[in-house]
Design goal:
The longest helix has 24 residues. This protein has about 200 residues and is α/β, with parallel strands linked by helices. The protein has a five-stranded parallel sheet with strand order 2-1-3-4-5, sandwiched between helices. It has a two-stranded parallel sheet with strand order 6-7. The chain has two domains: about 100 residues, Rossmann fold, CATH 3.40.50.2300; about 55 residues, Rossmann fold (3-Layer(aba) Sandwich), CATH 3.40.50.2300. The protein is built from six helices and seven strands. It is elongated. Strand 1, helix 2 and strand 2 form a beta-alpha-beta unit.
Length: about 200
Amino acid sequence: MKKLLLLYLVVIGAYLLYALNFFYGKGRAAHAEPAALAGSLDERYVMVTFQSGIDYWKGIIKGFEDAAQALNVSVEYRGSTKYDVREQVTVLEQVIAQKPAGIALTPMHPDELTPSINKAVDAGIPVVLFDSGAPGSKAYSFLATDNYNAGATAARTMAGLIGGKGQVGVITLPNQWNHQQRTAGFRDTIRAEYPDISIVAV
């Protein structure tokens, strides 16, 4: 009988603590620890790239999908079918019109994509840039490697391969911001560290 009474007291006490926490905890909500980051399946986030058919995006899309599953949200992948900035602008505008919860974007040309990025942000759609940025835009953040440093690393690797002297060339996409940064890192490092190497063409 004594054990049963103790069990009842524990259950009743636990219930009272739960009730007190429920009713009085609302007043402390502003000071409470934030809940775990999670959404709902009706929240749709869209990734927009260019040249959507290439292998480069496969791992990135997989990461996007894995994160969506962990956060309990929906995702969609869209992209221009070829390396064409006008097509990417069109795809981005179509996505904005659908009013997703957010957009992850890699812009092929910062200046050409900035008006659409700003339009999305002004419409209350958060935009996060990855891999290639648009520094003058209203995008919330930019996630990428240090592209300048990547170019510097490429220069040092090239110098090692050719014995520190000779002629080299750079093949790049001139209007893409991440490529501009990589080319600058390559060019600056060759000029500063390898006087016997000349860049004959970009």
